[in-house]
Design a protein that fits this description.
Largest sheet of chain A: 3 strands, antiparallel
Strand order of the largest sheet of chain A: 1-2-3
Radius of gyration of chain A: 15 Å
CATH superfamily of the largest domain in chain B: Type I PLP-dependent aspartate aminotransferase-like (Major domain)
Strand content of chain A: 15-25%
CATH topology of the largest domain in chain B: Aspartate Aminotransferase, domain 2
Helix content of chain B: 40-55%
CATH architecture of the largest domain in chain B: 3-Layer(aba) Sandwich
Number of strands of chain A: 3
Oligomer: heterodimer
Number of helices of chain A: 6
Shape of chain A: globular
Radius of gyration of chain B: 22 Å
Strand order of the largest sheet of chain B: 4-10-9-8-7-5-6
CATH architecture of chain A: Alpha-Beta Complex
Distance between the termini of chain B: 44 Å
Number of strands of chain B: 17
């Protein structure tokens, strides 16, 4: 197996989000809340969203885990405010594509800071860490729409 | 005591001789599983290429050879742990199956509602969950021996914890998460004084200490082959013959019966009544080879080597600012397991960074969530050493931790 470069994984932006996460805390007036954990490694997050008129109007999370899982969810929350449910679903799809090594997704400006996580795709055992937040988001969207996301 | 030539020992382990991510492998995940020496791999290969047949049922030559190899391995392993009788050694898939065998085969008939099972906070999940399952079915009450800040069992209140309601004490010999060597003799004596039986989870103990089950005095001793140079999928339950004879089988099938009628069956003698179905014959034979390998080196010499490596490792990591080491401070009370945290770097990140340098460590809760909870952490990183590790391995590990500090500050 080719040897991936640590620098492509631990970018400064990731470490900044890990040390000072955005939107961390409790959300008043959330409409949906999802707890998601990786029992193998103990990473966990609780994602709270306020969804009004088919759009995300606020988001917060609490959690603990490795730099990749916590930075990814922090970066994700930055992109969610004001997004319609369809846009949020599309963001999750684009991020997942990037995690599977899609080079065009890694250049997609819509992903914002999340693009710093592109290097994770070269560390297969860490991809699940990066996806934890989006897994929680997708579960929250499913609960909100009764499973009818498209 | 004569220590062995570590380099000569390393040369016998093919898996150690490889590059990982461009660097020579440093394998420090031995508490999860050990690597296998050529002698064990050769015996397993020879069994399949020359003697493969089913055991205890054929009259033909290959079946005779397979049965002999399988039973010789049982005698070898039984003698190695100083069992009084090789019939006291039941082959299992490993420690987990051995403990489940006791929970279901002995527990269901001997534990009633309100009876108490005493466990410890440091147990591996394999010595917790089987008792949870038994408790759900019987109404048994589970009580716990707590841990002090150094990862040692608090035994001051043992007399209060153990009462005439206590039917079983189930305790690890050596902790996989902390490295603590438990004073099991003292626990066994106290448990027997109230009439309770004692099960020792020896998954880590058998690896690092010479074990004499008769001197130890426990009633059940459970262990695996794969952490002591043997293959995966084989292990054993040792129990006193009188206890095994009084127990019902826990699984039914071929091999474990004497006569089968329409409405009932009668059982084979111990240990066969606990070995339903075709067993892991090659695994048992190879585990016998692992015992030969370890006997040649000598368990005292292995323990002395590991202690020297651990002493060096503790001194080296002691130089690192921001490191938090778990487990006992005294080398007399700990084996070759180094569980730690470093600054605000998460154990998964530590493990990824070390892996990029070819160094294998474990990160996570180590199947000991009660231990993590006790110390208020979600996970730790763990380097665990074995007979083939060297001070150079420790140096590479410490250099790797320097890279972690470089990234996480």
């Amino acid at each position: 197996m080719e040897t991936p470069n640590l620098n492509s994984l631990y970018q400064q932006l990731i470490l900044e989000h890990y040390r000072a996460p955005k939107n961390k805390g409790e959300l008043d007036g959330s409409t949906v809340e999802v707890h998601m954990a990786n029992p193998v490694c103990g990473d966990e997050i609780r994602l709270q969203l306020r969804i009004e008129d088919e759009a995300i109007t606020d988001v917060k999370f609490v959690g603990q885990g490795c730099s990749i899982s916590q930075a990814a969810v922090s970066m994700m929350t930055q992109k969610l405010n004001g997004k319609s449910l369809d846009e949020a679903t599309s963001l999750a799809r684009r991020f997942t594509e990037m995690m599977h090594g899609d080079a065009s997704a890694a250049k997609d400006r819509d992903l914002g800071d999340l693009r710093a996580l592109a290097g994770v795709s070269k560390f297969p055992v860490r991809v699940k860490c990066a996806l934890l937040g989006f897994d929680a988001l997708q579960e929250a969207l499913k609960q909100t729409t009764g499973g009818e996301t498209h | 005591m004569t220590l062995f030539d570590v380099q000569a020992v390393r040369d016998q382990f093919p898996a150690l001789n490889q590059q990982v991510h461009g660097r020579p492998l440093v394998y420090l995940d031995n508490a999860a599983t050990s690597q296998k020496p050529r002698a064990v791999l050769d015996v397993q290969e020879a069994y399949y290429t020359q003697d493969n047949a089913n055991v205890h049922r054929g009259i033909h030559e290959l079946s005779r050879r397979a049965t002999e190899a399988y039973e010789d391995a049982r005698i070898k392993v039984a003698r190695w742990i100083k069992a009084a009788d090789s019939a006291e050694l039941v082959w299992t898939r490993g420690t987990t199956e051995a403990i489940n065998l006791v929970a279901m085969g002995w527990g269901l008939d001997n534990i009633s509602e309100g009876d108490e099972i005493v466990l410890t906070e440091m147990e591996h999940h394999s010595n917790l969950v089987p008792w949870h399952l038994l408790s759900r079915r019987t109404g048994a009450v589970l009580r716990y021996i707590d841990l002090d800040d150094q990862g040692r069992l608090i035994l001051d209140n043992l007399d209060e914890l153990l009462t005439e309601r206590t039917k079983l004490v189930a305790c690890g010999h050596v902790s996989n998460a902390l490295g603590t060597i438990n004073p099991v003799e003292r626990i066994i004596e106290a448990a027997h004084a109230v009439g309770a039986l004692v099960l020792i989870d020896g998954a880590q103990g058998i690896v690092h200490l010479p074990v004499d089950v008769q001197a130890l005095g426990a009633d059940f001793y459970c262990f695996s082959g794969h952490k002591m140079c043997g293959p995966t999928g084989i292990g054993a339950l040792w129990a006193r013959r009188s206890i095994l004879e009084a127990m019902e089988p826990w699984q039914g099938g071929g091999e474990m019966i004497r006569f089968v009628h329409k409405d009932h069956s009668t059982w084979a003698e111990v240990p066969h009544k606990f070995e339903a179905g075709t067993p892991n014959i090659a695994g048992a034979v190879a585990m016998g080879a692992a015992v030969d390998f370890l006997s040649d080196l000598g368990m005292e010499a292995i323990a002395a080597h590991e202690r020297a490596i651990m002493e060096y490792a503790l001194a080296r990591v002691g130089e690192i600012a921001g490191i938090r080491v778990f487990g006992p401070e005294s080398l007399d009370e700990r084996s070759a397991v180094l569980s730690f945290l470093l600054g605000d770097a998460h154990p998964h990140d530590i493990s990824t960074i070390l892996d990029s340098e070819g160094i294998a460590v474990r990160a996570g809760h180590h199947c000991a969530q009660l231990v993590m909870k006790r110390y208020g952490v979600a996970a730790t990183a763990r380097a665990s050493f074995y007979l083939y590790n060297t001070t150079e391995d420790v140096d590479r590990f410490v250099d790797g931790l320097g890279i972690v500090k470089g990234i996480f500050g």
